[in-house]
Amino acid sequence: xxxxxxxxxxxxxxxxxxxxxxxxxxxxxxxxxxxxxxxxxxxxxxxxxxxxxxxxxxxxxxxxxxxxxxxxxxxxxxxxxxxxxxxxxxxxxxxxxxxxxxxxxxxxxxxxxxxxxxxxxxxxxxxxxxxxxxxxxxxxxxxxxxxxxxxxxxxxxxxxxxxxxxxxxx
Length: 170
Description:
This protein has four helices and five strands. The protein is α/β, with parallel strands linked by helices. Helix 2 packs across helix 4 (149-169). The relative contact order is 0.20.
């Protein structure tokens, strides 16, 4: 009987702690000017690194399908409106991956080695307020991201730590 009481008390304490700390977050990635309609692995691997950090920090994390459309702003606004009316997500993290392309005849993998910038912002859904944002220019220090899961994951984890700090301190 004492064991059952201890388990019940631990479950209650655990659920109170999780409700106090854990937030519900959706990741929305946008692939801008990559020269292809295919979602590039570099985007997926960086997003995975971000999600790993947020999940390991106790948050409930989901992601929307990556946007590769020209009209990203309209799609983004539609998604924010959807989540605002659903009221099951507290934050949306919008991440825009900007690729430099000079070639008008893009090959399928034109953007891989030309990831030039990552811009992200954290939006609090209930009042549509940006609570943090950052633009990271990768510039000439850009590593070769082509199929380099480790480097993409490291970059994603660094971004994830920044995002987690914003959400926890909010």
